[in-house]
Amino acid sequence: MTITTTKNTANAALPVNGRRISVAPMMDWTDRHCRMFHRQITRHTWFYTEMVTTGALLHGDVPRHLDFNEAEHPVALQLGGSEPADLAHSARLGEQWGYDEINLNCGCPSERVQKGAFGACLMGEAQLVADCVKAMRDAVQIDVTVKHRIGIDDVTSYDFVRDFVGTVADAGCTTFIVHARNAILKGLSPKENREIPPLRYEVVYRLKQDFPDMEIILNGGVRTLEEIDGHLQHVDGVMLGREAYHNPYLMAAFDARYYGDDTPAMTRAEVLQAMIPYMQEQLRLHSGGKGGGLRLNSMTRHMLGLVTGLPGARAFRQTLSDSSRLAEGNPALLLDALARMQPQAA
Question: What sequence ranges are listed for the domain DUS-like FMN-binding (predicted)?
Answer without folding.
Answer: 23-334
